[in-house]
Write a structure and sequence with these properties.
Elements (H helix, E strand, L loop, with lengths): L9 E4 L2 E7 L3 E5 L7 E5 L2 H15 L7 H5 L4 H5 L2
Antiparallel strand pairs: 1-2, 2-3, 3-4
């Protein structure tokens, strides 16, 4: 993956990586960490961001984005001491 990402800018959007292959013409969308697999391509950075937004809506947020729910189960008495 490092060889394919040697040129162009990287845009990190909602946990995804959007890599600029050819400025304003071709962008590659990689998934979230840790493996960052290649998922799709888009013509512009805006189209790439819209693709990411659609994917999040379709699949729901990843476990990294729902971290507030992890802390919602703590008893109030435990939080009062902080």
């Amino acid at each position: 993956m490092l060889e394919t990402m040697s040129r162009g800018m990287n845009l990190y959007y909602r946990g995804y990586l959007i890599h600029e292959d050819i400025r304003a013409l071709y962008y590659t969308i990689f998934g979230t960490r840790p493996d960052r697999r290649e998922l799709a391509s888009a013509g512009t950075s805006r189209e790439a961001m819209e693709w990411v937004d659609r994917r999040i809506v379709e699949q729901g947020p990843s476990c990294m984005l729902v971290w507030p729910s992890l802390f919602g189960t703590a008893p109030r008495s435990a939080l009062a001491g902080l």
